[in-house]
Every structure is written in C-alpha cells, then in structure tokens.
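User: For a benchmark we're assembling, each entry needs the component sequences followed by a predicted structure for the full assembly. Here are entry 17's components. Please fill in the structure.
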Amino acid sequence: MSIREKGYHPWSGTLIAKPHHWFPIVRFSIKQIYQKRFAKVLFAIELIPFLVFLFFSYILYIANRPDMAFVSLLKELPAEVKTLDYFFHSFYCFGTTVFFHYIILSLFCGSDLISADIRSNAFPLYFSKPLSPLDYLLGKFIALLFFLLLFSLVPGLLLLLLKLAFSGFDGISLRLIIGIVAFPLITASFMSLFTLWVSSLSSNSRWVKIIFFLFLFGLLSLSGILTGISGGDTRFMLFDISTNISQTGHFFFHVKSNIVASPWISVLILVFTAGTLFYLVARKIKRIEV
Amino acid sequence: MVMQAHIIELNNISYSYGSTQALSHVSMNVSQGVFGLLGPNGAGKTTLMKILMGFLKASAGHGTILGHTLSEDPRLFRQHIGYMPESDCLIPYTDAVNLTAYTGALAGMPWHEAIKRAHEVLYYVGLEDSRYRMVNTYSTGMKQRLKLATALVHDPKLLFLDEPTSGMDPSSRGEMLTLIKDIAKKAQMNIILSSHILADIEATCQQVYIMNRGELVTEKTVGEKALAIDARYRVRLQGDLDSIPDVMQSHLIPAEHAGHFQLKLDHSFDKNTFFKCLQDQGIQLREFIPKTETLANTFEAAIGENHEH
Amino acid sequence: MNLVIQAENLSKWYGNVLGISEINLEIPPGVYGLLGPNGAGKSTLLKIMTGFLRPNLGQLRIFDQSPFDNPSLFKRIGYCPEYDAHYPTISGWEFILFRAKAFGLGETEATLAMQAVGLTEHMHKRIRQFSLGMRQRLKLASAIVHNPDLLILDEPLRGIDPLWRIKIIRLIREFGQKGKTVILSSHILPEVEAMTRQIILIHQGKIFALGDIDEIRTLLDSHPHQICVKTNNPRRLASFFLSDPHILGISFSKHDPSQVIFITHQRDHFYEKLLKILIEESFDLHEMSSPDDNLQNVFDYLIGRK
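Assistant: Structure for entry 17:
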C-alpha cells in the first residue's frame, strides 16, 4: 500500500526518440481551424462542386448507354466534352472553380495562421522548444495544405474511383492520373505558401485578408492593363494568378488554352514563385526576436 | 557520492551586436539549486538568458549547459529546459489543457502522455478549476500560472523564470513564490530567476548573480550572515523610547522606521546588560534579529553610481 | 489634525458591476499603501480621487474640495497613473518642461524633478526610445515636478530596475517625512512595507482595514500571534511557558533545533515575561521575530483565500 503525495511529481515517460516537431503543429492548427465558428458550414458549402460533378459523372456514364431516355440531348455535345480530360479539367478549372474555392478556404483557414502568432506573441512558446523555424513553417504549411487538398485532390480522386466503377479503365490513362494528383498538389502548395507569406506580413488578420485581395486583384488588373496596352498580347495575362492556375490545368489535361503562351510556363511560374515565397517566410520567421 | 557536475559553466562569454557590447567576459559556474539574476535595465540579463537558451550564439568564449556545449545545435538541450517568459505569449483561442499539452508535444512528448501530464501540471499550479476554459478568459494571475505550467509540462531539468510574479495581486504573488520554492525543494529542479523585485529573489533564491553593463559584478549568497566580529542586531522596541539611558545611547542607533534600531554589542555592553536596561526602563523587546546584509545593500554596493538609464 | 482626504458613504457602480460601496475615510497627512486584490475597487477609488469619475452616492473631498471637474485642485495633486500617457515624438525633457510650465514653473523645477528620478542623462532622447522603466520614471517626475501636497501613485515601480526601486522607495518615504501625503497603490507588499506602516485595504468594494499594520495585526483575533525564538536551549525555555494560560501553543522545528515558536493572543504579556526569563535564567538569545507579523500575512488573513 502506498500513497500519492500532493505536489510536484516528475514525469516518468520518455520523449519520442526522433520526433517530427512539425507534426504537433499540424495537428493543433487543423483542430483550431476545424473548431472555428463557421468552419462546418463552410466545409459543407465547399462540398457542393464535388456533389455537382458527382451528378455529371453519372450523366456522362449514361451518355454511353444508348437505351436511356434523354441520351439524345447529350448527342448535341461536342466530342471533346465527353472525354475524361475535359471532365476533370472542368472540375478543377471551369470558370476558375477551384481557384475560387482556394481563395475562400485560404482566407478562412490560413489568414491568421501566422498573424495570430505574431499578435499573441507566441514565438517564445514555440522556439523555447526544440524546433526549428523550418519545422514551424512546415507544420503551418501542411495544416493549410490539408484543407486545400481536402476539397480539391480528395474529391478528384473520389471522382476518378467512381469513373472506374462506372465505366472501367475506359479513357483513363497514366497521364490523366498524374494530372489529377499533380495539379491540386502544385496549385494548392502555391496558394498555401502565398497565404502563409501574406499572413506573416501583419499581426492583424483583417489586414492580412485585405493585403491578400490587394495582391490578387492588383495582379489581375496589372495583367489586364498590360494586355490592353500591348494591343491584345495575352502573354501578359501570366501576371495574374488565376490565369497561371488555369494554364496549369490546361497543361495537365491537354485542353487547348486561350492564351498565346505555352501552358508549361505557368507550371514553372507557380513552382518558382512558391519557392521564393517559402524562402521569404522562412527568412522572416528566422529573424523573429524571441 | 559523485560530485555533481555543474548545471551551467560559462567561460568568458561575450556578446556584441553592432557597436554595442551586451555581455563581456562573463564567467560562472552554476550548480544545483535556485539562482537569482539581478541587474539594472540593459545589464545583459536578458542577453545572457537568451544565450543560455540557445536563441543567440556568443560572439566569444565558450560554455556548457546541462552537459551540452553552447556551440551545439540548441535543439539538443531545449528539451530539458523550461522557459517562462515575462511577455504575454499564450495562444488565446484554445483551452488550458490543450495549450499545455501542445507545448509538451512540441517538446517531443507523445500526445496522450502530453495530455495526461498537462492535467497533472495544471492541478499543481492551481488551475484545476479553470483548465477547460479558454485562455483569453484568464486573469493575469492565471496566465502567469499557465505559463509556468507550459514550462513544467515536459519535466525539464532547468527552469528559466523571467519576472514570474509580474502583474499578480498580493495573494497570487505569495502563492507563486510558494510554488517556486516547492518546485525547487520537492522536485529538486534547478531554477534561474530573473526579477526586478528584490523581495522575490530573497524569498526564493540561494544565490544571486548581480550584473551591470554586461559584466558579472558579483555573486552573493542570499541571507549570508554578517561577520561575528561586529555583533550587530536589528531590534524593535516598544514603549517610552524618548528617555533611553546614556549607557545604551552609544550602542543603539535609530533606524529608518519608528521603533526600529540597530544594536551594537561588545564586551562592555553584552546581551544581558541590554536586556536588564530594557527591563529597568519598562521597554518591550519585540524583535531581535542578527543583522545580515540585505540584498538591497549588496546590490547598491555592487552597482552604486556606476549604472546606466 | 487636518484631513487631506475625507470620504463619506462613497459608492460607485457601473450598471450591475460594483466598484466601491459605502466607503468612509478620514486620512491625515502621511504615506499610505492602498492594497487589494484585482477587481477590489482600488482603481475606482483612485479615479474618483483624481476627478475622473463622480460617485453615485456619498462624497469625496480632497483638501476640503470635490475633485470632480475641479482643475484648480490639481495644482496640489500629483498623479502617476498605471497607463502611459505620453507623446512619443517629443523628448523627455520637453515633456517635463511642458508640464512644469503648465503649473507656472520653469526649468529649475523641471531639472530637479528629472534629477530626483535619475533621467538627466537621457532626457533629451525621444520618449519612444525610452525603455519601460524610463517611461515609468518620467511619469513619476511629471507627478512631482510641481511639488504637490498629495501624491497619488498607481503601481509606481512597474518596470523599474532594482537600483531605482530602492531610490524611489526612499524618495516616497522622504515625501511623507516632509509632511506631504502619498497614496500608493501596489501589489508588491514587501515594497509597500519599506515605504510605510499605514495601509488602506480594499476588498469587495469595501474597506477591510485602515491604519497601522501592527495595530491591524493585533485586531486579528482569529489569528493568534506567532513568535519565533531561537536560543541555546529552546525546550527549557518552553518549559517556563507551559503552565501559562495565555500561551495557546508551542511548537518546535525539525530543521532548526534552536527554534521554538510560541502562539499567543497576549503579546505584551509574552514579551515582558520572556525578557524576565531571559535575564533570570541567563538564556542566550540568538534571534526573536514574529514570522506572521508582516504585511503579506496580514493581507492573507484579512482577504483569506485559504
């Protein structure tokens, strides 16, 4: 029989041998985002595009079955539309669909990821622990990426699986699969890093949102103005973020683009800019006075 | 019994940025126990703490902390250090348990261990009733306790406390000082406490390092008794103090508060003589304490006029 | 005896929230520590004293005038608030000079004030370059520049380093010795004790204690006095008190074999008897003190969370 005395007891457990210090940050940030006030409502709304395309997926399936009643309506559609490439391209890029959702999700989930820490001065709490600025950045990056991919990559993969279920391997190629995975990864990573960078610029999350929009519309306006001034040279549209995203879609899904520039350039632009933004945020975090 | 290795060993540590010399040639050997860090603003206390925690690298000199050298990657020893900063550093929109467990997980604790330990530590610092509440609803005293909890959750070997009682009301101050004394005694944790409040250091620390202008000026044991050659006592008397007999006058010097005196004894005037005098005069002896060098005196003597700002 | 501050049935509340309730005060010149837990009503009382608030009930008079909406009274009052109220772009010297001139004084008084708080070396720097401790000292300087009769100080030592803490404590004590009045609100009880023996203790919007710490301690019936005596033979000393009905308890210490603690309500009786026994029985007294006779204990006993 022994008693437990009141007071301080040392911890008898052991630390994780080779911990990934970014993982608790991912877990904590995801939980915080999920617990935000309108999170569940927003996520429900974000599921709508997936549900819509789920429906169209069925339509395409029955389009190949001549015995169904309204198949004749679908006969009017051009052949290109009926391909899987076009289907997925539409899901990701039609009328900048995914970009619109990226904006909403990034702002809601990511605008205060770093700015809240600046505001509450939480950096001594983080950096007095054995983690590096890179761990911190990686943790925040993955947390935001998680939500962006949850509403782009995951639905895309689910739709692919459904297509497999409905019509077998018809029309599915390795290139398509790579596109379905690579497109969200590249574009969501870019958006995530962009949002993190903007978030690190101010301690006020309202300002962060304003700066975010300023960049978006600023670049759009700039590209529009330059295109106009140059008398219709659409290569200037490459200054605009949404153009680069849809161009990336054109690259991966082999759909014809309406801009003069080659689509692979946009992929490079996104990757290169993402890298630069990563470097900028990392530098800012490293410089923070604890 | 194996000789305890020093917790911290510093050898001629210097640090400068731009043209400012923040620390110059600081050497110290810190063994087990509670140590105070005292000094005027700009003395280099914060810089020293930052170097010890690995936030800054010394410009010159070398040292070890908990057996690791300061030139190593600080992540190797940060698991064993707990830091309670002076500034507000808590993440507001989460509850105390979550926050404490989070800091434990960041230190490398498995998540479920971190949660269990968070509850334990929150009970210990006295936040058991409010541990499920959001941190932004906490009062200053509660936030200070929570900061202490986040510093203790991973059971560190060395605690850095920066102004731990800042902003707390008198009852909470007393409780925090009791907690610190308890951690030092029961948990045998090593503590380095930096504070402007002399009373806090006197209450908790065994040894004090006094710094000024980037240098370590002196090291003092708290409550060290004055040398016995000069038998002096602090006494408090009550009664008719206007007519102190001449024989006592030369040995009794009035001190700052009314009724307080400094008593100087020697072979011609010893304790018994003193007591008899008091009894004859009908004066009550209420306090009789051997004079020790107060921390205030030590500090003033060490820094004196040689200080900035 | 002229009263500096008089409060009669003073009450203030904000909607449902209580500030202070039925406070009666009569304060002659001297240094007083205003103590209390957070939310007790200290700031409310200070705001009424400095004329920022008007009470709902009762009245407060300072130098026999009402402080509310009474700017001329402020020539005699110096206030050091908790918050910062500076202009960051001007220098410390310019600020204090401006304050001095507002009272019809000049450079001499401003210089004296800056010397008293030790800012002469850096006073030409802009206030935004001041450290927290320097800004605090600037506030103090601006509170004393016009040599007021009443000083109201709210946490005056915040952020100040130990050396200047000691000096300012001395400054405040000297102020009191010159016949002026200081009302000082602070949470750090040992420092209050170094400045004065007079306290005003507020809790739950009411005055719980007002007066000398010693007298208040004597009045605390529910907490008998502890007197710690260290001698060469503590147990023998204790034996002389065993049959004394005024002694409520005697305890010894595991860590210090020379120590014995007596618990009694009758302090006078104990001290007289102890002195007699020390002389008659030739005990060698090492130390005698009252461990719970300090402000922290008085505070805890009165406010009593335990």
